[in-house]
Amino acid sequence: MNRKTLALTAVIVALAATVVLTGKATPSVTPDISLAGSHPMLRTELYFAAIDVQAWDRFLADEITSRFPDGLSWYGVNGQWRGPSGQPEKLPSRLVILIHADNAANREALATVGRLFQQRHGLAVLQVVQHVQASDPDWTADRLEENRQLSR
After folding, report:
1. Domains: count for the chain
2. Does residue 121 sit within a domain?
3. Whole-prediction pTM
4. Cα angle value 75/150/114 (rounded, 5°)
5. Residue 1 lies in a domain
6. CA 41, CA 25: separation in Å to the nearest integer?
7. Which comes out higher in pLDDT, residue 151 or 68?
8. Considering Cα of 50, then 107, then 17, then 65, what sign does the dihedral take?
9. Distance from C-alpha of 88 to C-alpha of 81, rounded to nearest angstrom
10. Which of 20, 51, 73, 116 sits a CA distance of 20 to 30 A from 59?
11. Residue 39 belongs to what domain range?
């Protein structure tokens, strides 16, 4: 194996170790990070196949933002995967990143987003979850109280 193949294999193995397809949280590995005012959260990445821009904007607003109104980031990205032929296939994609509390409501919301995307567009959503410590000066006690996205 050449260095490029070894490096790619290492990345794939590391990524595969963190993939969660069931909507359940990853193993309880809490990072050893001390940030002033930080909270234990999950960082979830959702990988969607790129669909028509208007359809994406509707899905983002109606299904994702409505379930995670406290914020998210999304990017247009280029993906690659091993297709049915066994060969690499390029796939324009969209990546949504969410920072959220680990609770049943958020797990259900993530599962619903994936299920709805697959029902409407015939494409599965890859989900990667990591435990993180997150801090935001806007996360006041009042804002966190009773906040499904940010509170446990």
Report:
1. 1
2. yes
3. 0.74
4. 50
5. no
6. 11
7. 68
8. positive
9. 5
10. 20
11. 20-144
Q: Is residue 2 part of a domain?
A: no
Q: For residue 127, which of 8, 39, 18, 34 has the smallest C-alpha distance?
A: 18
Q: How many CA atoms lie within 13 A of 32 on its CB side?
A: 0
Among 102, 96, 108, 103, CA closest to 67:
108
pLDDT at 15: 42
Between 151 and 101, the higher pLDDT residue: 101
Q: What's the CATH number where 56 sits?
A: 3.30.70.120
| Residue 134 within a domain | yes
What are the tokens at 140? 């006041």
- pLDDT tens per residue across span 35-86: 567 889 999 999 999 999 999 999 999 999 999 999 999 999 998 889 899 9
Beta 39-49 vs 126-134: how paired, if at all? antiparallel
CA pair distance 94, 72, nearest whole angstrom: 13
| Cβ contact 130:26 at 8 Å | yes
Q: From 97, 79, 96, 98, select the one nearest 88 (Cα to Cα).
A: 79
